[in-house]
Amino acid sequence: MPQVPQGLSDLYLAPVAIGLDAQIEEFARLSADELKMRVSVGSDSLSRTRSEREVGLLEALRQGVDCHGWVLAWDPRGLRISNDDHSLVLGVPPSFRDLLDGEA
Q1: Distances from the Cα of 10 to the Cαs of 49, 68, 69, 73, 85, in angstroms?
Q2: pLDDT single digits (tens) 11-38
Q3: Could you state, in order of their start, the residue ranges of all structural domains in the chain?
């Protein structure tokens, strides 16, 4: 049985997911160097470790998207969006994995 939205944050899932998906699509079109630059500028830091690159890419993706309380995190399958007991994973391009692994 489908769950009914329990609050305002649940109602914001669609606009948050659509906004993040648009960011993912835009970033996917960038070259490896352009993606690194975008993440550096978007996160206002140079990322030396995988953990720093993960945080930097999340911050860059979050720019321009009002997440309305939805939390972003990395999942083995992609970008996890979660709020309380609800979550959704958006797929990411190989260039994101290359960047996070330090191969880009």
Answers
A1: 33, 9, 9, 17, 10
A2: 778 999 999 999 999 999 999 999 999 9
A3: 8-101
